[in-house]
Amino acid sequence: MGLIHPAAADGFASNADDYERTRPGYPPAAVAYLRAVLGLGPGATVVDVAAGTGKLTRPLLTSGTRVIAVEPVAEMRAVLSRTSPGADVRSGTAEGLPVADASADAITVAQAFHWFDAAGALREFARVLRPGGGLAVVYNHRDRAAPWLAAVNRLVEVHRFGTPQQWDGRWREAFTADGPFTALEDATFDNPQVLTPDEFVGRIRSMSYVGALPADDQARLLRDVADVLATHPDTTGCTTLTVPQRTVVSTCHLR
């Protein structure tokens, strides 16, 4: 069984409800593309790894696919079980999946691959997949160039302290030419999210390393974020905020 990064274990355990309430889902076009590439539908089995509160699990279920949703954090798993009826919810990690050898047609990972021991996770995925099985790594990316989001990011990232993150793309380095999977192929979809200012602050609180901060530091940071929203020229007086965002679906197959 793999280990959970402390920032993920502590941060997500403390903010599972915020995660479910404020994190974006995935646009229908992205889900349709993923289903088509992975061959999902009735009779197929997909393992949704690090399923969180079920943001991707739920649209996978609507295809008629059997979904095994694996989530290591108990508090996230409780929300997942509540929000995703029909999923086979299990405790486990990417490096130690509670799934039999060669029993799945596909694996999905949304917002999580950067947390894994990548080489160990890919070995485990290869064990679980049937020959030729597919893998999809899905990420929502905020537009970091948007001035008001850049101002928020400057406040938040001071607290990251080396916590793994998706932005640098280092997670992709595990997909080597001599590895068990084919090269990644990317497809990008627009996915703007509309939130109230309070919901946006909740989304910031749902970040792993923000959720893991000491209470005083977290409260100070969230006040500073709220101040940006109240004073920045792009957001002052807004009752809703549109977060510019895109979804990237990266797919490959077991060789």
Key structural traits:
255 residues, alpha/beta, Rossmann fold, seven-stranded mixed beta sheet, two-stranded antiparallel sheet, 10 helices, 9 strands, 36% helix
Q: What can you see in these coordinates?
A:
α2 packs across α8 and α8 packs antiparallel against α10. The radius of gyration is 18 Å and the shape is globular. β2, α5 and β3 form a beta-alpha-beta unit. With 255 residues, it is of the alpha/beta class. 41% of the residues are buried. The chain has a single domain, classed as Vaccinia Virus protein VP39 (Rossmann fold). Helices cover 36% and strands 22% of the residues. The strands form two sheets. It has a seven-stranded mixed β-sheet with strand order 3-2-1-4-5-9-6. The model has no long low-confidence stretch (mean pLDDT 94). It starts with 5 loop residues before the first helix and ends with a strand.
